[in-house]
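[job 0417] fold request received: DNA starvation/stationary phase protection protein
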Amino acid sequence: MGKKSNSTASAPNINIGISDKDRASVAKELSKLLADSYTLYLMTHNFHWNVTGPMFNALHQMFMTQYTEEWTALDDIAERIRALGHYAPGTYAEYSKLTSISEPTSVPDAAAMIQMLVEGNEAVAKTARAAFDKADAANDQPTADLLTQRLDIHEKNAWMLRSMLQ
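[job 0417] inference complete; emitting structure tokens
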């Protein structure tokens, strides 16, 4: 089975009012967002399974709420990349090259999990903000709308998690 790159998919000419160059630029940024989002999803799900301590129930539930929302968002991000005429990255190898989030090498305690998830949500927000700049410059309103929604969610998640550390 041949590997398809993140280059333009072989499809009919795309004429949605965004140049090929701008679509490629936005898709590249969305691919980074997808990688960061998947890495954060995986970390959050891992922590849901492995959290222990006196805050177990609250954290177990909070992590489940967050990873469930993140899982749904992955599809939205990948489908937007496809709508722009590019292939979405979908392997661990691709994600590891594109993500800005460091994964844990062991199971941290609950406080460290919370701190790592604060940093992960902040990283996704920064990546989404950079992608927003590209989408805005390309006059790509659907992508900008998606990114605004992601920013709102990740900034809120970071705030809620950060509040648990005070």
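[job 0417] notes: The chain is about 70% helix and 0% strand. The helical segments are 20-50, 56-83, 92-98, 110-137, 141-164.
[job 0417] exit 0
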